[in-house]
């Protein structure tokens, strides 16, 4: 799945399949300017920062179990968000500090460091990605990802795929080759 935020005409948090199909709103009320977003892949939760409401909130992948992790002046101007173990990590763009927030109670907020020009944060750890033995976009014997001549996108699950073409090309009737 692909998760993203939008605060155009209607502010929302959405999800869709990796090929853009099955687009679903998971949050569309009591939300103003959702920006940074982070996923808890193990427990299937979506965290986001709302810079207008000065809040960090969480919801499950279906849009249920929503609650506010933390709200208020101490978390103004947040950009970037990452989740790892019991904490959320974010950047305060006002003073360029890295903050650590307890994601279960929101009361334990610590400034860890300052970094010049920091706007985003990521946690890289092996356990944050589940291993998949094989998937539909694996390279075939001819060197084509998923048998697609240009771009292979996972679809509704790791066993399904959709082929797409680069700009200026059209997908052929076989659903794999680009012309």
TrEMBL record:
Q: Which GO terms describe its biological process?
A: canonical Wnt signaling pathway
* Superkingdom of origin organism: Eukaryota
Record-annotated membrane-spanning stretches = none
Q: Enumerate the LDL-receptor class B repeat regions by residue range.
A: 1-43, 44-87
A GO CC annotation given for this chain: plasma membrane
Which InterPro entries does this chain map to?
Answer: 6-blade_b-propeller_TolB-like (IPR011042), Cueball_EGF_LRP_Nidogen (IPR050778), LDLR_classB_rpt (IPR000033)
What Gene Ontology molecular-function terms does this entry list? Wnt receptor activity; Wnt-protein binding
Alphabetical list of PANTHER family matching this protein? EGF-LIKE DOMAIN-CONTAINING PROTEIN, VITELLOGENIN RECEPTOR-LIKE PROTEIN-RELATED-RELATED
Protein name listed in UniProt: LRP1B protein
